[in-house]
């Protein structure tokens, strides 16, 4: 005889228990003499038996659904770790802090995307917002982020990076919506591509995304006020794309990139959250670090919306800390320490 080792599969138990309970109820009804009687006492006993069986089935189904929900959240958490991987605290002399919060409570990942990568062309960052949120947006996030992580190393021109992202999105939409009558035309992604050179020079390509805020000294202003390009998806990009010069990120300055879910957050009276005002308050009352800015903004947004935001929110803070990095390379007596061309990033604590 063959012997089956291990535990009985959960699916067998899930199907077997309700079947056994149902069989017991039917057997009782057909074979028990008490169940054949029409007296009040017999009816009460029969009703109690079927009530117990029904209650057991409901409890069993509820537990099965809770197990499935926990499994879905576990898978969503794994997807988040793979897509929105934790960023290093320092990337090529820039202090970095980022976080996102999905509006879909059943998912750990939403439709917002971001990443920062040091390349031979400079530090390149992306912030984007996929139409929709929750688990259904994961595929589009994966397509855009996967293309960005490859293209930033291959393409010296930021415009060609954006073209690569646009083509990756188009392929994803074609594969996802094979039906010609599907709503593929409604799929779009807002994207902000940003490059910071070694001298701090900032160049940007913006496709329908909110402009970042620049924190310089005690001032908080939008990085630019130019009209952005249309979002990726509905309209073709121009063949030639010229990145917009946006000044420099000087030592001590910070950039705050965000998705529109931040400023769309409303309080009980329907008033929108003012990100610029929150940043001004953070600059005035706190020591400015990337982590401090991030914590202050998330706390302010959640307090404003009372934890009930209607859209995904994501924040990415980049602070130029290159002066301190350069000073750290000086040893005792002013002797310069050996500097590596590709310093190893330090992970978040």
Brief summary:
Helices cover 41% and strands 19% of the residues. The protein has 349 residues and is α+β, with helices and mostly antiparallel strands. The strands form 2 sheets. The chain has a 6-stranded antiparallel β-sheet. Strands 3-4-5-6-9 form a 5-stranded antiparallel β-sheet, covered by helices on one side.
Polypeptide structure, described:
By secondary structure, this protein is an alpha+beta fold. It folds into two domains: 66 residues; 250 residues, PPM-type phosphatase domain (Phosphatase 2c, domain 1), CATH 3.60.40. It is built from nine helices and eleven strands. The longest helix has 44 residues. It is elongated. The two termini are 55 Å apart. The N terminus and C terminus are likely disordered.
Write the layout of secondary structure elements.
Layout: H1 10-31, H2 33-36, H3 40-83, E1 90-91, E2 94-101, E3 112-119, E4 122-130, H4 138-154, H5 158-176, E5 189-196, E6 201-207, E7 213-216, E8 219-222, E9 244-248, E10 254-258, H6 260-263, H7 275-285, H8 290-305, E11 313-320, H9 322-328
Antiparallel strand pairs: 1-2, 2-11, 3-4, 4-5, 5-6, 6-9, 7-8, 7-10, 10-11
Helix pairs in contact: 1-3, 4-5, 7-8
């Amino acid at each position: 005889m063959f012997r089956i080792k291990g535990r009985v599969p959960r699916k067998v138990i899930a199907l077997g228990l309700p079947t056994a309970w149902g069989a017991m109820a039917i057997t009782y009804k057909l074979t028990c003499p008490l169940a054949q009687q029409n007296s009040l006492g017999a009816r009460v006993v029969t009703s109690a038996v079927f009530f117990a069986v029904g209650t057991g089935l409901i409890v069993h189904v509820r537990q099965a659904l809770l197990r499935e929900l926990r499994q879905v959240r576990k898978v969503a958490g794994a997807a988040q770790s793979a897509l929105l991987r934790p960023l290093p605290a320092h990337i090529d002399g820039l202090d970095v802090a980022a976080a996102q919060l999905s509006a879909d409570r059943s998912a750990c990942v939403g439709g917002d995307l971001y990443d920062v990568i040091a390349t031979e062309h400079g530090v390149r960052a992306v912030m984007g917002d996929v139409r929709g949120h929750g688990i259904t947006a994961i595929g589009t996030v994966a397509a855009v982020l996967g293309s960005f992580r490859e293209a930033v190393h291959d393409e010296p021109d930021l415009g060609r990076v954006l073209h690569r992202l646009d083509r990756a999105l188009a392929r994803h939409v074609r594969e996802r919506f094979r039906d010609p009558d599907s709503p593929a035309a409604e799929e779009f992604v807002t994207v902000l591509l940003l490059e910071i050179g070694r001298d701090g020079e900032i160049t940007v390509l913006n496709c329908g995304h909110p402009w970042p805020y620049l924190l310089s000294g005690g001032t908080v202003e939008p990085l630019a006020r130019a009209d952005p390009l249309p979002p990726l998806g509905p309209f073709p990009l121009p063949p030639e794309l010229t990145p917009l010069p946006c000044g420099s990120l000087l030592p001590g300055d910070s950039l705050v990139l965000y998705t529109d879910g931040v400023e769309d957050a409303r309080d009980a009276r329907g008033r929108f959250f003012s990100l610029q005002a929150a940043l001004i308050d953070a600059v005035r009352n706190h020591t400015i670090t990337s982590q401090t800015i991030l914590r202050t903004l998330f706390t302010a947004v959640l307090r404003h919306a009372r934890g009930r935001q209607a859209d995904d929110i994501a924040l990415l803070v980049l602070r130029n800390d290159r002066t301190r990095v350069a000073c750290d390379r000086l040893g005792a007596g002013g002797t310069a320490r050996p500097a590596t061309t590709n310093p190893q990033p330090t992970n978040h604590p």
